[in-house]
Here is the input.
Amino acid sequence: MANYPLKRLRRLRYNPILRDMIGETTLTVNDFIYPLFAVPGEKVKNPIKSMPGVFQLSIDMLVEECKEVASLGIPAVILFGIPEHKDEVGSDAYSPNGIIQRAIRAIKAEVKNLLVITDVCLCEYTSHGHCGMLNGEEILNDETVSLLAKEAVSHAEAGADMIAPSDMMDGRVIAIRKALDYKGFTKIPIMSYAAKYASGYYGPFRDAAESTPAFGDRRSHQMDIRNGNEAIREVESDIEEGADIVMVKPAGAYLDIIYRVKQQFGMPTAAYQVSGEYSMIKAAAQNDWIDGERVMIESLTAIKRAGADMILTYFAKEAAKFLNKK
Ligand code: PBG
Ligand code: ZN
Here is the structure.
C-alpha cells in the first residue's frame, strides 16, 4: 500500500448502495438445487433429528413441497429415495414402481417449472447400505456400474430431467451415457458427482437416507480427503466420459477444489453443501452462538465466489426467502 493516503480501500465501503454496486459475487435463487427425501406411505412428514427443518416426505407431501419450492423461484430439486424394502442388490433403485420412479411421475404430473434431478446410487436401496454390489466385503465396480446404468434409465423413463450419479465407481458416467442414449434419452444431461470425498460431513444425511453402511466405510470408492490433484483427474475423466455438469462435494471444506475445477475446465460446476455443513450451522444458530441467517448466506456466497455455478443445499428454501425479501 505504497500510495496511502491517496489510496484508501475503505472509500468504497462506507455507502451500502455503492457496496452493492461493487459486490463481486451475487448469490441468487437461481443458483440453488434443493435435496428432498422420498419415503413410502401417505401424509408422512418425518423430521430428521440431526437436520433441523429437513423431513422425509411421502410422495403426496413431496409434491406439495415441490410446489412451494417452485413458487419460491428455486429452479431444481434433487431426489433421494428410501424404499420400503432393501435387498442385497438394491432392486428398488431400478424398479419401474420404485419409490423414486413414483415420486418423479407424481411431481412431473403436478408441478410446473421445476427441474427434477435424481441421485443415482445404490446405498439407499441395499440392505448392507453400500453403494454397490458386494462380493464378501468388496464393492464390485463393473457389476455395480451395470446396475447404476439401469437405475439411470429407469429414472429417465419415469420423467427425470437430469441424472446425478453419486456412487464414485469408475466408468459409471460413460456407462450411464451410453445406456441413456441407447434408450433414446440423448437429451437428458448428466451431472456427475465428480470429486466426491469420503467425508465425515455426510453423517446427518445417513440418518435422512437411512443409508449407513452395515460394516466398513466408503473409502474404497470415495476420494481421500488429502488429495487435490486427484480431484482434477476424477473431474477430467468424468468430462471425457460425457458429464455435462461436474460436482464437487462437500463444498465448504473443499473451496480450493471448486476453485481449481472451475479454473481448469470452465465447465458448469456444481457444489454440494452437504448435510453436516448444514447441521453445524443450524446447531450453532440454535445455541445462539452464531447468527444463523448471516452464516447461511456467508457460506453459500463463499461457495459461489470459489467458482460454483450452482449449489445443492438444504438451505435453499430459507436462502430463497431471504433473497426474495431483499
Ligand atoms: C449417496 C449420497 C450421499 C450423499 C449424497 N448422495 C451419502 C454418502 O455418500 O454417504 C451425501 C449428502 C449429504 O451429506 O448431504 N451416495
Ligand atoms: Zn452411495
Notes: Residues 119, 121, 123, 131, 166, 202, 205-206, 218, 274-275 surround PBG (ligand 1) (CB under 6 Å). The domain at 24-325 is CATH 3.20.20.70 (TIM Barrel).
